[in-house]
TrEMBL record:
It holds the Pfam family AHSA1. Belongs to the AHA1 family. Residues 18-144 form the Activator of Hsp90 ATPase homologue 1/2-like C-terminal domain. This is SRPBCC domain-containing protein. It comes from the Bacteria.
């Protein structure tokens, strides 16, 4: 019998000392995204966002090697300041669609963010995304704890 088990997910939890609206904006506003989205220094070069259920997005950022990385997806759930779910596919492999779910919960310290990236094509894709998200979240952490958003 073939193994049809999905590869594990990438799961990240953070608590930020800001209101949910600011964390939401970091993920949904092109200007805010440009301040953190990319490996290392933010390198977002394009952010077309149609923020509604069924709406699409197209993001592009410069990679460490200078190459352009592009991804697209469709927003599946848009619940302002609380939940955002969207598909994720690299321009180079559009058939490999994964999913990202973001939950924002107000807490005494500010906002708890729960990030889950799942439905990967294979385990190597999960490992690669885990490595990439660690870099991206370092930039997001600096932005949201530095109070410049």
């Amino acid at each position: 019998m073939p193994n049809t088990e999905q590869p594990a997910q990438v799961s990240i939890r953070r608590t930020y000392p800001v209101a949910p609206e600011k964390v939401w904006r970091a993920w949904t506003d092109p200007q805010a995204l440009s301040q953190w989205f990319g490996p290392g220094q933010a390198s977002l070069t394009k952010a077309d966002i149609d923020l509604r259920e069924g709406g699409q997005y197209h993001l592009a950022f410069a990679g460490p090697d200078g190459g352009l990385n592009q991804m697209t997806g469709v927003y599946q759930e848009v619940k302002p300041y609380t939940r955002l779910v969207f598909t994720w596919a690299w321009h180079s492999t559009p058939e490999r669609v994964s999913r990202i779910s973001i939950e924002l919960t107000p807490v005494a310290e500010g906002t708890e963010l729960s990030f889950v990236h799942d439905r990967f094509f294979d385990e190597q894709a999960r490992i690669n995304h885990e490595r990439g998200w660690a870099l991206f979240f370092s930039s997001l952490d600096r932005l949201l704890t530095g109070g410049s958003l």
